[in-house]
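Worked example 2:
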Amino acid sequence: MNQKVYLLSATVLTAIFGIGFILLPAQVLALYGVPSNTSMIWLGRFYGGTLVTIALIMGTLIPLAQEGHTKEVILSASLGNAILAFIAIGTHLAGIGNDIVWIAVALYGVFALWGVVVAFK
């Protein structure tokens, strides 16, 4: 797999989750077992906006992947995904959320490892 495929996959997946959090924050939070009060809905929408912003940045980088100018960005995204995986694990072990959190851990872990492999290929 090359950097272009990684960036495209990250763009699409991040955009889908971001749009979900913006349009349906209560429903998405409920999937993770998080109660949806006014504050959590507000926070969920801001999180969704952040995800859409990241998707736009990653999507903008796709044309640069063929020129080899995306290695550092992909490594940074991998580090961020690894951190998010550990945050999700810690949060779940603290009793927050439900077992769906393990899907997030798997996605973060896959993108963290995949990014490192792609960056050094």
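The mean pLDDT is 93. The first helix runs from residue 3 to 23.
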